[in-house]
Design a protein that fits this description.
heterodimer; A: Rossmann fold; four-stranded antiparallel beta sheet; B: mainly alpha; abc type-2 transporter like fold; 4 strands; elongated
Chain lengths: 247, 370
């Protein structure tokens, strides 16, 4: 694996009043890897991803994305990343190609480039007939795939996916992960959060978060071995539950 | 700059695809002009007058005839007692009561001094005062005629005669006065509500977050929300003006260019304010409440109904930052008086300052990062 760090996080803390959403997170992400962020709902995954994307300010700690300080220069980071949020965020009253055009344009692509690459993208997604369909009339699975394609259309260095597969059927989820692999294969680093434990197996490395802290970070295989479990799901239950029982 | 064009394309596509927007853009100016302009009037007509005639003489009947001879009063009732008259005032069936006492006309012959009693419902003070002054002028004329018809009076009474010329609105048509004001209300409503709601709606749906994570600059985003509604506002102003011409034959004395120029500056100010409010609000409901509150204050204090010069000093001070007050004044001056740039330069300067400040406020207050 490439050893170039694209994300460096050191002692990141994010507080909302007295509530600590991210408690002292430290991790690095390397270029071209698929980095999974796992945790139950409310574990602090979305908070962390929003800080990395420059949507939220860290309370303390050092955060560097694509070599740029997230606390002081978030706008510079935004030029180099793609982001797909948990809430569906394409414009429902625009068509597929209009959404692609809009985001391509915002990221500084030329109209000519957008025009030539849009059909390419659509055919890759098997979306050719949908160019002029309003997003509103697409099923959720297709929308999520399109949202992901739009997030990487401008060829960012890193793409952040916040629970991209929640609410999506198993077949679409599978296709979605194929897209993630393809993206990583093109050298784009993928940072993905999920609460589906089976998806962790698809990641190069996974971080397990619990109540705002990182409780485990390694490759899925190494983690299974370390905790002696057959799957990451079992592992997750094992390392997050005892804590609660001891309280 | 190119990014702004992509954003603008998106806004116009969304507006075009929203059937409500098309309807609102056409119907709001039509309805506002056709309903508000003729409905809002200060002209007082057909004041309900109740008369108790306890005299029953040709003289008392002559007085009543003179009062009802104009369209100002209409006799609504003839109560037989004081108590009955008061009942009419309480129920709102009469606004003014005239009581002609017994022996009223006997007074003309010098037996007693002739007297009349008038009771006016002064809940609406302006109305009561106008009714009273009209009634007293009728009585005064009647008085003079009685004196002149008396044998020992001179054939004419010397006195001062003032003859008025009503400039700028010679027929004293209230529609001419109200129409420029209704146009201001029209573009205030469009400017303040449409753009603001648009931005808060994006917050509610969550699409704004996707925009915030892109390298779009704050001024580009604000401009992409200002420009479409700026154009819609000017279009609606033109539409309202055309309706005014066709339906009410409104005079337009001044320069159209100046008129639209001032409205353009005004729209920028109002749109800036709207986007500032929507930046602060997190739901459409919050935004609507704040916007409604300000629209009401701005419009009521603007001098549309009551001359702002008669307001207390502090209210006039407030009107310096009230864009509606500035345009209200400008519109009436340009449309009715034909005032030129020099006459309204101070108001234009004030509006421009507000426009720059409100837009700057919207851009600074906008947060791409929570």
């Amino acid at each position: 694996m490439n050893e170039q760090k694209v994300i460096e996080v050191d002692s990141l803390v994010k507080k909302f009043g007295s509530f600590v959403a991210n408690n002292n997170l430290t991790f690095d992400v390397y270029k071209g890897e698929i980095f999974g962020f796992l945790g139950a709902n409310g574990a602090g995954k979305t908070t962390a991803i929003r800080i990395l994307c420059g949507l939220s300010r860290p309370s303390s700690g050092k955060v560097k994305v694509a070599g740029i300080d997230a606390a002081h220069n978030p706008e510079e980071i935004k030029k180099r990343i793609g982001y797909m949020s948990q809430r569906f965020s394409l414009y429902e009253d625009l068509t597929v190609s209009e959404n692609i055009e809009l985001y391509g344009g915002i990221y500084g692509m030329r109209m000519k480039e957008i025009r030539t690459r849009t059909p390419e993208l659509l055919s890759r997604l098997n979306f050719t007939g949908y160019a002029d369909t309003l997003i509103r009339s697409l099923p959720l699975g297709l929308r999520q795939k399109l949202a992901f394609a739009v997030a990487v259309f401008h060829e960012p260095e890193i793409v952040f996916l916040d629970e991209p597969t929640s609410g999506v059927d198993p077949i679409t989820r599978r296709q979605f992960w194929e897209m993630i692999y393809e993206t990583a294969g093109n050298g784009i680093t993928v940072f993905v959060t999920t609460h589906y434990m089976d998806e962790a197996e698809y990641c190069d490395r996974v971080t397990i978060m619990n109540e705002g802290r990182i409780v485990a970070l390694d490759t899925p295989a190494a983690l299974r071995q370390k905790y002696g479990t057959a799957s990451v799901e079992e592992l997750f239950v094992k390392i997050t539950r005892p804590k609660k029982e001891s309280v | 700059m190119r990014k702004l064009l992509f954003l603008l394309k998106k806004e116009f596509r969304q507006i075009r695809r929203n059937p409500f927007m098309a309807r609102a853009i056409i119907m709001v100016p039509l309805l506002q002009m056709l309903i508000l302009v003729p409905a809002i009037t200060f002209e007082i007509k057909r004041v309900d007058l109740a008369v108790t005639d306890n005299d029953h003489t040709p003289a008392s009947r002559e007085l009543i005839a003179r009062l009802t001879g104009s369209s100002f009063f209409s006799v609504s009732d003839t109560p037989r007692s004081y108590a009955e008259a008061e009942e009419l005032l309480l129920a709102g069936d009469a606004e003014i009561v005239l009581i002609i006492p017994e022996g009223f006309s006997a007074g003309f012959r010098g037996v007693t001094r002739p007297q009349l009693q008038v009771l006016a419902d002064a809940v609406n003070a302006t109305n009561a005062q106008l009714a009273w002054s009209y009634l007293s002028s009728v009585v005064r004329d009647y008085n003079r005629d009685i004196i002149l018809s008396g044998g020992n009076a001179p054939s004419s009474v010397p006195g001062i005669t003032a003859s008025p010329r009503f400039w700028y609105n010679p027929t004293l048509n209230y529609k001419y006065y109200m129409l420029p004001g209704v146009l201001v209300i029209l573009i205030t409503a469009i400017g303040l509500l449409m753009a603001g709601l648009n931005l808060v709606r994006e917050k509610e749906i969550g699409t704004i977050e996707q925009i915030n994570v892109t390298p779009v600059m704050k001024w580009q985003l604000i401009a992409s929300k200002v420009i479409p509604f700026f154009i819609i506002g000017l279009l609606d102003l033109a539409l309202g003006l055309i309706v005014g011409w066709i339906a009410f034959d409104i005079p337009f004395e001044g320069s159209l260019f100046l008129f639209f120029g001032c409205a353009a500056i005004f729209l920028i100010a109002v749109l800036g304010l709207a986007l500032f409010f929507s930046t602060m609000a997190s739901t459409q409901q919050q935004f609507l409440f704040v916007a409604f509150f300000f629209v009401m204050i701005f419009v009521l204090m603007s001098g549309i109904f009551t001359p702002s010069e008669s307001m207390p000093q502090w209210a006039q001070q407030f009107n310096h930052v009230n864009p509606v007050a500035h345009l209200m004044k400008i519109n009436r001056m340009v449309m009715l008086k034909g005032s030129g740039f020099g006459d309204i330069a101070a108001s234009i300067a004030a509006l421009s300052l507000l426009a720059i400040s409100f837009i700057a406020l919207a851009i600074t207050a906008y947060r791409k990062r929570a």
